[in-house]
Amino acid sequence: MVQRSTLSLDMQAIWSGSTGRENLGQLELVALAKQRDSATWSSIYSQQYDTMYRYIYGRLGRREEAEDLASQVFLEALQSIDSFVDMGRPLTAWLFGIARNLANNSIRRSQRMGPTDSLDTEEVDRKAPGLPGGLSADSLDLIAALDALTKEQRETIVLRFYVGLTAKEAGQVLGKNEPAIYALQVRAIAALRRMTGYETQRKESAA
Questions:
Q1: Cβ neighbours of residue 178 under 8 Å, at least 6 residues apart?
Q2: Rounded-to-integer distance, Cα 67 and Cα 134, Å
Q3: Alpha carbons 55 and 143: distance in angstroms, whole number
Q4: pLDDT per residue over 10-22, tens digit each?
Q5: 105 shares its domain with 149
Q6: Same domain assignment for residues 96 and 116
Q7: Which of 53, 55, 59, 86 would bridge with 70, disulfide CB 3.0–4.6 Å?
Q8: Beta strands in the chain (DSSP E)
Q9: Is 43 within 8 Å of 17 (Cβ atoms)?
Q10: Separation between Cα atoms, residue 97 and residue 130, nearest integer Å
Q11: Which residue positions in the chain have pLDDT lower than 70?
């Protein structure tokens, strides 16, 4: 379990409320969330914090900032839950949209300010499967190379191999079917192998 950033006293009261909402359907869960039911928000936070953290870490490569932004996802969700409309996609997909915006804003700020923070090399506690073909999820070269992918390729790699979603789950987040996710994954992995020099190293080893 990754470390969770300290929240304000008011927010901490919500996150620390009793749970028991894990088995609710989405319509009922959202209805209670819109009522600011503390047990419902505690359940959402408990179930989704690590997922949001893994996503943001996969985008930024900076552990402490990922912890802070993962907590911020739920603060913004609490503030904007009234605007959520159930269109058949899981609530998690909506949370990913908030996480994506926070990560994008952080990346834009870093680009304006210049490289001030180094990527973390510390191993991250994650349940996600390892990347195939000799690529390491903790490789600094890989984390940097992700930004050179197309938006959809980058999202696919982060959701599949940092967050650990299935192709079907990633498709729900991105609004795509499973074959499209697999196609994006294949193209993205091929591009990452080229950019990180994996193919060159493999050929040299085989020579």
A1: 167, 168, 171
A2: 27
A3: 12
A4: 555 455 544 556 6
A5: no
A6: yes
A7: 53
A8: none
A9: no
A10: 24
A11: 1-23, 114-142, 198-207
